[in-house]
Amino acid sequence: MSDKQYKTSTQVEAWFLTSEFEGQRAGSFRQERWCKIFSALQCPVRVFNIQGARHVLEKTFDSPEQVDEFRKAVMNGSEGRASVREGRLVNVLRVIKHTFFIDLYLPNVIAVYRRCAQLLREREGRVVIMASSPPFSMAVVGALLKRRFPEKVTLSVDMRDAWAMHISLGGNRTIRRCIEGRALRRADAVTTVSYGLTDEFEEAYGIKVDTLFNVATHYFEVKQKSEIDWRALNPAIDPGRLKVVYTGSTPIGFYDLASLTRGIKQLRERDPSAADRVQCIFVGACAEVESAWQAQGGSDNDVVFVPHVNHNMARAIQQNADALMFLAYFGPGNKGVVSTKIFEYMALGKPILPISLHENSDVDRLLLTYCGRSSRLHTADDIEAALRQMTVQGAEAVLPRMDDPERVRPLLDGYRDLSRRLIDGERRAAHMPQA
């Protein structure tokens, strides 16, 4: 059945509780995708988007075209912001936030709960609430509304990342797990972005979780390559060298930056002529990489940094790169972390240089499935050898790459299937069967 043929009751609406819809981060495109799918199924959409401590946007959409119009204005009108704020004071405030769970009772979080409760009291029809986490506060709001209005609310929680089980976050993990478990068990459906996270949530809370990869649909439309002036980004960039580019942020404790920077430094020490032919460029909030590079005594222009840029410029930089670096989460099995970035890279058809990728992890399997091969670089020697090989054979001959972005399109079927089930009011058994 096509989306146009699929009709829903006029009594059903979909409400999205999120913090991403007015931004350019990867999560914003997942929210955009959900909104388009629901509105294409003739289900009116209402978005509640929080930012900071006080801002709340409430906006309604009746068609995918309206969603497109709003998101294009966001992309064209915003300079974009780094997904990770940096600095010593920020780190202290982050610890305080996680220790005292401040993010769960910010003024705008309370405002969203009150506004949704008011609308639910006034409504007769049912509502599908799609709570996007992070921030986990939206999942808590959704769970509280489900508890208060059980007959009116069908709740789906989209766990794009772990909260209680995230080892890089502070706070009392026992209390966090209690809060997280109670919220997720209240949901009629729980989704996440990788098989690794699915396994973790199912084992920890005894719930059924669906895996919906964060496919970069915003990269499906092939855009003409926009030429860029590398030296305008940073005068230290040499347009004549192979450019290995990373775009994004590097949060504290997420990646093995010591091995990465040591591998780059070793290439300079052991094979200067090869080092002269390649340059690693980090675009965005990458202060942790800069610190790691300085710790290695790096002084040459083998590693170059570019401040945060907006999404359109980031995409242009990716298009002009010779290879794109993917930093896998530094932990057992990469902790099931699958960012949108890997799908962006694959959709561009660029060679991908994965760092710290574990065998049989989600990203490893994705590369094997859609690129025909993977690459697992863990030590400084591994990284040095890969960079040297690129300077001899070229990035395309050495690294995995996907030749057709359409190959991953079937992964979107799960989004549509779940949306239809939620609109129909299907309350699946949220808990795993007992042994």
Q: Topology of this structure?
A:
Elements: E1 13-18, H1 26-40, E2 45-51, E3 55-61, H2 64-77, H3 88-100, H4 107-122, E4 127-133, H5 136-148, E5 153-159, H6 173-186, E6 189-192, H7 195-205, E7 210-211, H8 230-233, E8 242-247, H9 257-270, H10 272-275, E9 278-283, H11 287-295, E10 303-306, H12 311-320, E11 323-327, H13 340-348, E12 352-355, H14 362-371, H15 380-393, H16 395-398, H17 413-423
Parallel strand pairs: 1-2, 1-4, 4-5, 5-6, 6-7, 8-9, 8-11, 9-10, 11-12
Antiparallel strand pairs: 2-3
Number of helical segments with 4 or more residues: 17
Strand content: 5-15%
The SSE string, one letter per element, is EHEEHHHEHEHEHEHEHHEHEHEHEHHHH
Describe the sheet with the most strands. 7 strands, mixed
Using DSSP, what is the number of strands? Answer: 12
How would you characterize the overall build of this protein?
The chain is of the alpha/beta class and 435 residues long. It is built from 17 helices and twelve strands. It has helices at 26-40, 64-77, 88-100, 107-122, 136-148, 173-186, 195-205, 230-233, 257-270, 272-275, 287-295, 311-320, 340-348, 362-371, 380-393, 395-398, 413-423; strands at 13-18, 45-51, 55-61, 127-133, 153-159, 189-192, 210-211, 242-247, 278-283, 303-306, 323-327, 352-355. The protein has a seven-stranded mixed β-sheet, sandwiched between helices. α7 links the parallel β6 (189-192) and β7. α1 (26-40) runs antiparallel to α2 and α9 (257-270) crosses α15 (380-393). The chain is globular. The two termini are 37 Å apart.
